[in-house]
Fold this sequence. Notes:
Elements: E1 3-8, H1 12-23, E2 26-31, E3 41-44, H2 45-55, E4 66-73, E5 81-90, H3 92-101, E6 116-119, E7 130-132, E8 137-145, E9 153-159, E10 162-170, E11 173-180, E12 197-202, E13 208-209, E14 213-215, E15 219-220, E16 223-225, E17 231-232, H4 240-259, H5 264-292, H6 297-318, E18 325-328, E19 331-334
Parallel strand pairs: 1-2, 1-6, 4-9, 6-16
Antiparallel strand pairs: 3-5, 4-5, 7-14, 8-11, 8-12, 8-13, 9-10, 10-11, 14-17, 15-16, 18-19
Amino acid sequence: MAGQVKIFGDGLAACCAARLLVDRGFSISLHKAGRLKPARLLVSDPTQSLLREIFRAPNLFAHAPGIRRRIVRWGAKAETLELPHRGLVISERELLDRLWRQTSIAEIDPASLAAWSLVASSDFAALPALESFGARRASVASVVLAPNAPQDSCWVESLPDGWLFLLPAGDARGALIATGYAPEPPLAQSNLVTRQIAHIESAASRAFPAFPQILTEVCGPDWLALGSAAMTFDPLCGEGAGHAARVALLASAVLQAAAKGHPPASLLAHYSTRLLQGFLRHLQVCLPFYQSGGDGDFWMSETAALELGIAWAQQRLSRRAPCQFRFSGYDLEPIAPAWAHPPSA
C-alpha cells in the first residue's frame, strides 16, 4: 500500500486528488465540507480533456451546452466585439456528482494515523493566513434570457463601478455574475448585458471575494493545501476548474514521489514554488483587464492591488531555489543538475 491520506473537502480539487491517489494505491479518508456550490462553470476544452483523462470518462460532458462566442464590451468607450470561444457550461454540483460516481474509495478509519493530509476546504480551521490583493466582491443571480439572446454565447461587460459576466445555462436561462463593491448587479449602467436579460429569476447570492488570494504557506511537513483552500482566482479569467485539476495532479504526484523515497522537503519546496508561479501568472493575466476596464476609483484601486500582488509574488519567488523536479506523465522525476551532463567533446 502506498500510504494513507486524509482529504478535507469534496470539491473539484479534492475529487481529482482522490481519484489520482486511489489509482496509485493510496487509501483515503474523506472529510466532506458543506460549502455552497456556484451555479455554473464554464469549462475550457483543455480542462475537459484533462478531466476526461483523469477519470477515464469520455462521455463526462455529454449533453452540456457549448459556448462558441464571447461577446465583449470592455472599457469606457469600447465597441462591442465578438470573439471565438470554445467551452462547455455545466453546474458544479452536476459535474461533481458525475466525478464522484467515477471514483471508488475504500475509506480508512478517519481516526487512523495518515502520513499526509490534503486540505481542499477553506473551512479547515488550522490553515495559515491569507494574502489578499483587492477588495472586489462577486454575486451570482439566476436570470431568464431575452428571446433573441443566442444560446451559444457568453457576454462580458465593464461598467464604471465593476463588471458583468452573463453565462447561458440552457433552457433559456443564465447565470449573471456581477463584480464590484456593491452587492447587487448594477444593470442600470449596462449597455450590453442588460439587453440579453428578460428578467432576474432569483435574487443575487451572498457576495463572495472576487479578488485573488493565496495562503502565506501552501504546505507543511505532512500537509498540502489545494483548490480554493490554497488560493482563489478572479472569476473573470474563468479557469478555476482547470487550476483545481492541475494542482490536484501536482499534489498527488508529490505524495507519490514521497512514497518512492524522494526527499519530502524538496518536494514541498517544489509544490510551493509551482503554486506561487501559477498565482503570479494569474495576477499578470488579470492586470491588463483592470488597467483597461475604466478610469474610475474601482478600476484604479483594483489595478493597484494587482500590481502590489505581482510585486509580492515576484519577491517571494526571487528567494527560492530552482525547482528540482519535473513532470513525466502524471509523476514527478528529479531534474538532473547541469554538471551531470557534461558537454560532449
